[in-house]
Design goal:
The chain is α+β, with helices and mostly antiparallel strands. It is built from 6 helices and 3 strands, in the order H-H-E-H-H-H-E-E-H. It starts with 8 loop residues before the first helix and ends in a 14-residue tail after the last helix. The relative contact order is 0.12.
Length: 230
Amino acid sequence: MSDAAQPTAAEVRAAAEAVKTALDRHLAAIERRSGEDDPAVSEAFNQLAAAAEVYDELLYDRYDEVTPFEIPGAEDTLPPYAGPGEPHAISVLIRRDYTVAEPQRLLAQAQRVEAAEYDDGGDEDEAAGSVPGALGILFGEFEPDEIASRHKEFGLEEGDSTLWVTAAEEPPEAGEWLAAPFEHIDPQAVVCRFDVSAVFDDDASDDEDEDELDFVGDDDEELEPLDADK
């Protein structure tokens, strides 16, 4: 950032005062809260988070310093649950990200599955000859949880993942949401969520890394035969 674009010392001071005011409001809202999910507390929390973020950015831009704390922004939190008290239906939304770390391993595994499918001597499809085709074969053959537990065997490297459980009064009609399965999710209907990310593992010990390697197996070991007879 150029000197001309840097915030002034007065702007940094004003941002610090805004954080102090937001802290006072947050504490006052907590002291007056009417219940566990008091909206006044949530609003004060979001105001404090916003004020802290502004101060942190200005402090860094002006003095190249940071605050010793982090307050998650409103976009990182879910609103209080406001769904049915006794839901008769739930939806489980899962996203898992992978990197295709070893394309040749991925292709080899897909070709093995494809060969087993056509072991009667019929004409083989050439889908396993490309990465998209190989992914289609493997994800069509194996359950997502099995791929997650054996991802290194398939030449994949894990990225972030998240699981959301949402509640509803009644189950949807058959085929109702298939055209747009991940749209129209009401955040207030989310019962719980579980996130996994390398962001949370910065302080992981070497022992934890070794445990992970023991779980997925050694890449140099001979791959076990895949059961393609589902």
